[in-house]
Amino acid sequence: MSPASSSEPVAFDHLPPPWEPTPVVPRRPLGVAVISVLIALLGLVLVLAGLLYLLGAYLGPFVPASLVLVSSIDVWGALIIVIFGAALLGIATSLWRQETWALWTTVVLVFATTAYLFFTGSINVLLLVLVVVFVYLISVRRYFY
C-alpha cells in the first residue's frame, strides 16, 4: 500500500511557531538621531551657561569668574537661557523618541531661523545647512508617530 492512500494522518516532528502580528515600530533615521544629539548638546550648553552665570551672580567669591560662559546678560537673561536650554533638552529627547510634536517644533524652529538669516541678508553656509535640514525633516516625517 502506498503512503498517499493510507488513512493515517501524517505526523511531523515539529511545527513552526504560530504567526502573531507584531506592531510596526518605525526605525529612527540616522539624520534625526544626529539632529537630536546636536539639539541636546546645545540645550545642555545653554543650561550650563545660565546656571554658571546665576551661581556667579549669587555666590560671587565661591565661583571663579573664568567659569562664566556668558557675561553680557543679567539675572533675568540667565533665567531665560536656562528655561530655553531646558526646553531644547525636552525637544531633543522627544525627537529621539520620534514624537510628532517634537518634529514639527523642530521644523518650525529651523524654518524661523532660516527665514531670519535670509531676511537679514546673512546668506552663508549656515543658511544652506538649515535649508537642507528643513527639507530632510519634512522628508522623514513618516517615521514619526
The helix-and-strand class reads mainly alpha
Low-confidence stretches: none
Helix content: 55-70%
- Range of strand content: under 5%
Q: What is the global morphology?
A: elongated
Gyration radius (Cα, Å) is 27 Å
Span of the ends, CA to CA: 61 Å
Number of strands: 0
H/E element sequence: HHHH
Mean pLDDT across the residues is 88
Q: How many helices? A: 4
* Major β-sheet profile: none
How many distinct domains?
1
Q: Care to describe what's here?
A:
The protein has 145 residues and is an all-alpha fold. It has one domain (29-143). Helix content is 59%, strand content 0%. The chain contains four helices and no strands. The model has no long low-confidence stretch (mean pLDDT 88).
Task: Show the helix and strand layout.
Layout: H1 30-58, H2 75-96, H3 100-119, H4 125-139
Helix pairs in contact: 1-2, 2-3, 3-4
Summarize this entry quickly.
The protein is mainly alpha-helical.
Essential attributes:
145 residues, mainly alpha, 4 helices
